[in-house]
Write a structure and sequence with these properties.
Tetracycline Repressor, domain 2, single chain, about 70% helix, Arc Repressor Mutant, subunit A, 10 helices
């Protein structure tokens, strides 16, 4: 009598499925940046990932949901949640500067700029929902994490802020200035001078923020 257990079949969520999912996300990200949303088909994504179109649909349902997952994964890669960790033992100015420099350096990232340009291209073609997806998965998530950090600093009297949500918007505006938009519009390349300028803007933004909100 054979008492050995039958081999288990590989079901959803097992390593091979996760490898396929990762390959689909990578392919979709590359194609969305290269061809924008409207110019990217599920057939092209499947071919790029080396899987069937049915596999793409089984993992993500439809192209809108796949796009959302691409944005979510990209944001999580670039700005993982621990970026906004708060340590009360660290001077809040140091924490804010660390975050500001991470954001500043992202503005020199070609994929970041390419992603925004692709979405703006779709918006010009009458597809504003893709811009909303980026706003929801990117900006709203980032702002929520930053609000949480600032509120914790307020709670232990490191900062004095009445409106944390508004202060969050001000923080990101201060550390970016107009530099990212200049790069988006092709007015400047990300060379050494630009990198130095965007870092200087981030440092000055943190200094300005601290003058406005440091607890006295």
């Amino acid at each position: 009598m054979n008492t050995s257990s039958p081999a288990r079949s590989q079901g959803p969520g097992r390593p091979k499925d996760m490898e396929k999912r990762a390959a689909i996300l990578a392919a979709a990200k590359a194609l969305f940046i290269r061809n924008a949303f409207a110019g990217t088909s599920m057939d092209a994504i499947a071919a790029e990932a080396g899987v069937s179109k049915l596999t793409v649909y089984s993992h993500f349902g439809d192209k809108d949901n796949l796009f959302r997952e691409v944005i979510r994964a990209r944001i999580e890669d670039l700005l993982p949640e621990h970026t906004y960790d708060y340590d009360p033992a660290t001077p809040i100015a140091d924490t804010l500067l660390r975050i500001a420099l991470i954001h500043a350096r992202l503005d020199c990232d070609a994929e970041t700029v390419g992603t925004f340009r692709a979405i703006l291209g779709d918006c010009r073609q009458g597809n504003p929902r893709f811009g909303r997806l980026l706003w929801e998965e990117g900006t709203l998530r980032t702002h929520g994490l930053m609000e949480r950090l600032l509120q914790r600093a307020v709670d232990v009297d490191q900062l004095a802020i009445d409106d944390v949500r508004r202060a969050t918007v001000q923080f990101f505006a201060l550390i970016k200035g107009d530099l990212f938009m200049r790069r988006m519009f092709g007015c400047v390349d990300c060379d050494a001078n630009y990198a130095a300028e965007i870092e200087a803007t981030a440092r000055a933004g943190v200094a300005t923020f601290m003058r406005a909100y440091a607890a006295h």
